[in-house]
Amino acid sequence: MFGDFQGYTDPGLTCYCWPFQSVQVVSLAVRQLVCETDCKTKDNVTLKIKTAVQYRVNKARIKAAVFDILDPQGQIGASVDNVVRSSVPAMTLDEAYENKESLCSSIIQSVSSMMEHYGYIILNVLVTDLSPEQRVLQAMNEINAARRLREAAVERGEADKLLQVKSAEADAEAKHLSGLGVARMRKAIADGFKDSMQSMSAGGLSPQEAVHMMVTTQYLDTLKDFANNASASSIMIPHGPGFSKALEEQVRDGFNSAASAPSQAAMS
C-alpha cells in the first residue's frame, strides 16, 4: 500500500483498493538458469563449462525476493562464475572431468549461502558440459587412439608368441614321434635281417654268402625301383658291378667290428 509491502496472499479471489494498493504476481515454480563460464585448467587448457542452476523463490521470504534484489539471475550467474573460476584452475583437464560432483557441491554451497538472504532457494546444480578447444579434443582422441593401438600391438605380440610356442611344441612332438618311427623302422629292418640270416643259414648258406645275397638283392631292387620311378630330375651316378662287392665288404667289416667290440671291452 502506497509502495509499502503489506504481505502476500495465496492464489484465489482477493479484493484490493486501487490505486492506493497494487498487486504483483510472483511465481513459486522451479526455474533453471544456464550459465556458461570460460576458464583455464592447471595444465593451461582453456575450456567452457556449462552449468544448470535450478532454483525457486522462498515463500517465507518473498519480500526480499521481490524488493531486495533487482537481478537474481545475474547474481546467481556471477556467483557460479566465481566458484568455477576459482576451482577449475587448480585442476588438470582430466581432473576437471573426474571432479564434476565436487564442483557441483562447491557451487551449491556458495550460491545457496549468498542467495538465501535474498529469498531464493538453490535446489540443485548440474555441470552439463565441459567443452575444451577443438584442437585439445583432437589431441585427446589421438592420445586415446595411440594408447589403444599400443595395447592392440601388445595383444598381437602375445598372440604371435603363443603361436610360436605352440608351433615349437608341435615341432618338438613331431620330431619325437619321427624319432620313434625311425627307431621302430630300424628295429624292424634288423629283425628282418635276422630272420633272413636264420632262414638262409638253415638253407645251408654261410654268413658271408648270406650277406652277399642280401646286399646283391637289395642293390638289384634299388635299380629296379629307380628304373620304374625315374623322372627328369633324377641323377644317375656312374658305377660298376663291383659296387655291390664293395658294399658287401663294408657290411661284413661292420659286423666283424661289432662282434669284436665285446671281447675287447672284457679284456680291458
* Biggest pleated sheet: 3 strands, antiparallel
Q: Which range best describes the helical content: under 10%, 10-25%, 25-40%, 40-55%, 55-70% or over 70%? A: 55-70%
- Radius of gyration, in Å, reads 51 Å
Overall pLDDT confidence: 80
Q: Element order, helices and strands?
A: EEHHHHEHHH
* Number of separate helices: 7
Total DSSP E strands: 3
Determine the oligomeric state from the structure. single chain
What this model shows, in words?
The protein is of the alpha+beta class. Helices cover 60% and strands 13% of the residues. It has seven helices and three strands; from the N terminus they run ββααααβααα. It has a three-stranded antiparallel beta sheet with strand order 1-2-3. Helix 2 packs antiparallel against helix 4, helix 5 crosses helix 6 and helix 6 crosses helix 7 (242-267). The relative contact order is 0.07. The model has no long low-confidence stretch (mean pLDDT 80).
